[in-house]
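*Target chain*
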Amino acid sequence: MYDGFKHQLPDSDEEETREWIEALDRIVERSGPERAQFLLYKVLKRARQLNVGLAPLVQTRYINTISPEQEPKFPGDEKIELRIRRIIRWNAAIMVSRANQRYAGIGGHISTYASSASLYEVGFNHFFRGKDNAQPGDQVFFQGHAAPGIYARAFLEGRLTEAQLDNFRREVVPGAGLSSYPHPRLMPQFWEFPTVSMGLGPINSIYQARFNRYLQHRGIKDTSGCHVWAFLGDGETDEPEALGALSIAAREKLDNLTFVVNCNLQRLDGPVRGNGKIIQELESVFRGAGWNVIKVIWAREWDDLLARDVDGVLLEKMGETLDGEYQKFSIESGAYIREHFFGPDPRLKALVENMTDDQIVKLRRGGHDYKKVFAAYSHARQHTGAPTVILAKTIKGWALGEGFEARNVTHQMKKLSEKELKTFRDRLELPITDAELKNPPYFHPGPKSLEYQYLMDRRAALGGSVPKRIATPKALELAPDHVYEEFLEGTPPNREVSTTMAFVGLLRQLLREPMGKRIVPIVPDEARTFGMDSLFKEIKIYSAVGQKYEPVDKNFLLSYTEAQDGQLLEEGITEAGSMASFTAAGTAYATHGEHMIPFFIFYSMFGFQRTGDLIWAFADSRGHGFLLGATAGRTTLNGEGLQHQDGHSHVLAMTLPNIMAYDPAFAYETAVITREGLWRMVHEGEDIFYYITLYNENYAMPAMPKGAEDGILKGLYLFRKAPGDFKLRAQLLGSGPIIRSALKAQELLAENYQVGADVWSATSFQQLRVEALSTERWNRLHPEEQPRVPYVTRALEKSKGPIIAVTDHLKSVSGQIRGFVRTPYVTLGTDGFGRSDTREALRAHFEIDAESVVVATLQALGREGKVEQHVVSRAIKEFGIDPEKLDPLLA
């Protein structure tokens, strides 16, 4: 009969195997499954100690990973650190409460930091290294909702004033207030990493730790002393970005990375896993991904109880109790806990028979015990070969009083009543009178106090205050102008290239310059698609372990070559991970004081649409770099279909205030924009970054017209005048490959309809709009001055006839400048879902081909009374355009 074993696996000693199985059977029969389980755990642990090679269990028992005898001696002064922690707790809560008493609805969060204070303070006092004296320091990704506690500590250190605390969430006046969450853009000397958009902190921290290794392996900076800490909530782990990159951290053996998950068992609205156990679930996920897992579940008060639990009933009760029940126990009395947790089993009840109800209530969670937390951090820092996650169990709203602690509504509570303030003050044992609570004060023990001196001494020993952002990168010499010359001269008559290929050629040239070492090419597994496979052997693909295998294409010129000092980040199929690498590289000038220039090239459809939140965080981080949306266009990427064809990335890009979004048609435009971007971001240090769309359609690249550079950068310039002197005139604006529709339409209009149309290259409707809005605002605020005229208005005001703008993007892209154009303005674009077909068929379908441009021009002239309407009708018929076909927007 089938016995559940795989008999195809040979057994060298069947009798010995049978003896082990029978022994296990006897233990279960005689002592029960609990005893058998205990022995199996012991045997498995011993096997690991003997390096037998068994994989660790993905889930261990619901107790602390580090037992009391394994805990290192706590090196600090427990009493002083407790007082410091209490002062910070008070000031954090008072800051939020005062802000909401004075300005109802200003918001803020009290309970997250209350639950995680010990987790942070152990780090601040013993682990987080600063950057004073040019030290590399650690990178700490703080949980966004815990920001009030970080401000409260900075106030205690003297880095922030009472006035600034009173302006929490009021930051319109620069420098006067404090950001709601970690925002480097708004507090550029304080915060390093924006984290409150949940899930982004974890993924960015993983790729930050990896980028630190990249810098080390490439000989750019010694980052061996850097450790990355990421603090997140247990509810935040439901975000796909939070856990989606765990495998790369384990695969790269990032033992320079520690996650600290504050497991207070609550989301914003209720339990994280009321019917389950989030710590056990997360342990399985992290262990399965190859992480070192340290659970900090129970405080020291439980150690004696567990030591006396000879029958394992307490261990069993801990394991079977649900998170929803633990949340209930957090708010109940000692008598309730005695009855419902310990009471059902006489053996459990006997464990606590000598404890008072008050003592039972004070059986804390492990995340509130700084000795347990210190032990976890120490083990994490000493662990090698894998990243570590610390799962620390806490209570949301800890120490704030019964109205806050573990309540489902605690995340939304912003103010403390006078009664709650008294309870809070008494718990923290602070010297604040009842009278003062009517307008609760901040508390600072003074610069001569033991608390202040201790706090400052600890930070001095660890390298200075954290967080602190220092943006003083070393100067970097940029590539000389001659590097760009061949791209300004155009291609030979018999050679056609795409703008993607032109960009790759430019990138190769830049990589060969001295500054090229600082370039970080990033590709999410599409390098061959973008014609970048030539870089595989030239600059090599970064791998922390080099290339341990012989690639199948070793004998080919463009073989897949990995190296520990490789430069290209080939990230695999992860736009989010690639964006996290882009962020680590684009902020290295501040994080590490080293200019790194990331060029992240991706399918344009999967950039802003898929990773928009990460791009927004990059803007908040004041990152520098180039986003290259390759294979762009709704019709240029002709065979890939609906979910690949991008016609809207420029609409999404325009929502970012500090982005420079360009849609170049020619190689020289790409070169001019890239050169300008390097100058502004690296040399001038401007807080901007670039988005450039690139295309896969090949055509001859012309030389740059004389004097075009200024217009290229501003967004519009005259590319080709009408071929002759015509009575009827029009202006055609085109961008990307669709400028060729305008150029062909120019010929058709001249030859068949005697209309002279000038063709303009619109490299950036976004930049035209930005400049025009800025000019409009200046005029509004300077009513007595001579009004200024927007560049786009000046550029087109002397041109004659209606303006037809045509792009491979939504009509709203070119429609951005409608209000700043003084003549009739028609937009043609690709509104609607994409689809597969030839480029010619798609452009006819979306009505952006040359024939559609001609019809639009004639119809606009007809509206002005300059062309008879029957001429327009005849053109529609001759071009085979069906006027009754379904609108492409709805097709």
